[in-house]
Amino acid sequence: MRFSIITVLVAAASTALAIDISEAPACAQTCLTDNAGSSTCDPTATSPTCFCADTNYYNLVANCVASTCSTADVLATLTWYDTTCPT
Fold it and tell me: How many CA atoms lie within 13 A of 71 on its CB side?
């Protein structure tokens, strides 16, 4: 039992995104990857469509960016998001 709990924790901690976030500011990249485990989307998906539609994930990332990034990086993140997730 202990092994399976540790395995789940390690897997959750190492969640990475397959979508391209390289154009987002570094602080936003951290927020995007740190909150990926909270999304219902498949982290191996290469299309951002699901992540763009996941309002819970968006809110978590937005709160993280607002609290950890500079004003310039917040604005750059919004520009990146608008480009990545056109409506």
Answer: 0
Domain range annotation of the chain: 16-84
Q: At what angle do helices 26-34 and 71-84 cross, to 10 degrees?
A: 60
Q: What is the rounded CA–CA span in Å between residue 87 and residue 80? A: 13
**Predicted confidence (pLDDT) per residue in 34-62, tens digit:** 999 999 998 888 889 999 999 999 999 99
pLDDT value, residue 15: 54
Tell me the C-alpha distance between 63 and 40, whole Å. 18
Burial (CB count <10 Å: 0-12, 13-18, 19+), residue 84: middle
15 burial (CB, 10 Å; 0-12 / 13-18 / 19+) is: middle
